[in-house]
User: Fold this.
Amino acid sequence: MSFGQGGPQWGPGGPQTPDWAALAEASEARARRRKWLLIGGGALATVGVAAAVAVAVVSANSDDTTASNKPASELPTTADIPGTSTAPEPSFEATTPPPPPDPKDYISSAKKDKAPLGPESFFPGTKLTSGERVYKKGDTDSTKKCASVTQPALAAVLTRNKCTEVLRATYARKGIAVTVGVAVFDTEAQAVRAKKQADDGLVRSLSGKGVAPFCRTTVCRGTYNAYGRYAYFTTTGFLNGKDVTTKDKNAYEVGDDLARFTFHQINRRGEAQASAAANNPE
Assistant:
């Protein structure tokens, strides 16, 4: 069967048949490019997330709450980050309480030694106990005429060093009596000089209140010492008029007991004033 001229014809010189192989290759190439683009985009997204995390970390360590988009090479160094200081940390000294006052300071100068002064301040009560030995207290007195209650040699020493007062008390035990004299000076230096110069002379014995006169015409034992602004002296003798010799151990013991007691009384005077000053600081 044949058709007339003007109808479609299939063959050389007519419409071309599509190249199906080329079309398939082009489609495959386009698919590969799309795949690489997707993979590349994912990689870029990962880099972007990492960069965002890095920026967030840097921002968290900064006083500035605004995130920075600068690369890591342009970020500030540690020394430039606000809040970082190279100055030394402040140091604080340990707080310690002030040392307690020295008791001797209060008995070394009349300017600080303001406690009441009298025989009872050194020789209180009616007796003195030293270990197993008990001494009965006799009479007491005080005078600002220091030379009037001492033998001439000691009187000259006290006058030369400007003694202001002498306080006395007598104690007795088993036929032995001792008079203690405390000479008062304005300064420790005066008391020390008086002690060094008191090689001869005694405090006059003080009788009364059950203690008979002693050491008026007999040989008696004397001691002298000083502490703070006070020099203190003892005169020890027998009530029966016997002379004291180096063999009379009991007489030496009595004098030493009273000298030691007097030292402690002077020291307690300083301790009491130091304690009062510590409890009531100015």
Observations:
- Residues 1-15, 36-68 have pLDDT under 50 and may be disordered.
